[in-house]
Structure prediction request, 106 residues.
Amino acid sequence: MAHYPASVWIRAFAYPAILVGFVLFLFFAHAVFSDHEVDCDGQEMNPGQVCGANALTGGGGRSYESMATEASVNRGLGYAGMALLTAGIPSAVFVEVRSWHRGGDW
Prediction:
C-alpha cells in the first residue's frame, strides 16, 4: 500500500466536504433559519392542524405531525451542511497554506 502524506488525505476530505456542505446548506437553509417550527403558506401551524388544498374540509392535506417530522429532518440536514463547511474550509486553507509554504509539494 502506498504511503501518502497527510496533506493528500486532508485534501481528500476538505474539498468534498466543502462541496457537499454547500449543497446541503443551500437546499436546507430555510429550515435552519425559519421563524416557526412548521409553516403552512407562511403561517405558523399548531399541533392537530392540516395544511393543504382541502384543509378546510379535512381531506387531502398534510398534518402538522408529518410536516414537523419533515422539518426536523430538513433542519438536521441544514446543520450537517454547516458542520461540513465549518470543518472543510479551515482544512482546505490549512493544507493549501502549508503546501504553498513548502513549495507546492503534495
